[in-house]
Design brief:
Helices cover 28% and strands 33% of the residues. Helix 1 crosses helix 2. It is elongated, with a radius of gyration of 16 Å. The two termini are 26 Å apart.
């Protein structure tokens, strides 16, 4: 798994190293915290990016792509915007790294009888 390093200026000398999995976990929690979002469970997904979250470090910034379903009755643009804002705030405040792009792909809308994602 890729590792991202950064030297922070200040009193302490040394470096802080983040495993991409840690950043991915922060992103996952940020996405799950947005009202109206249904995120896929790893057990049933087939793709390599099974949970619908991809994190990439390029040029000193973190780029994120997420795939979600939303629950019926929620505004797709509003939910997507809230996902982007929550990811940006969470990653930048918890890790001190900057977010580049945040791509949100809405796979579908879950209607009341479909509200369970496996």
């Amino acid at each position: 798994m890729a590792v991202y390093k950064n030297n922070f200026k200040g009193e302490n000398k040394g470096k802080v190293v983040y495993n991409i999995g840690i950043v991915k976990g922060i992103v996952r929690l940020a996405v799950e915290d947005v009202e109206g979002v249904a995120i896929r469970n790893k057990k049933r997904a087939v793709r390599k990016s099974a949970d619908g979250i991809k994190v990439d470090v390029s040029g000193g910034v973190i780029n994120v792509a997420v795939s979600v379903d939303i629950y019926y009755g929620n505004s797709v643009p509003d939910v997507a915007y809230n996902i982007q804002q929550n990811i940006k705030h969470s990653v930048e405040s918890m890790s001190r790294y900057k977010i580049g792009n945040i791509d949100v792909k809405v796979n579908g809308v879950l209607f009341p009888e479909e509200n369970k994602i496996d």
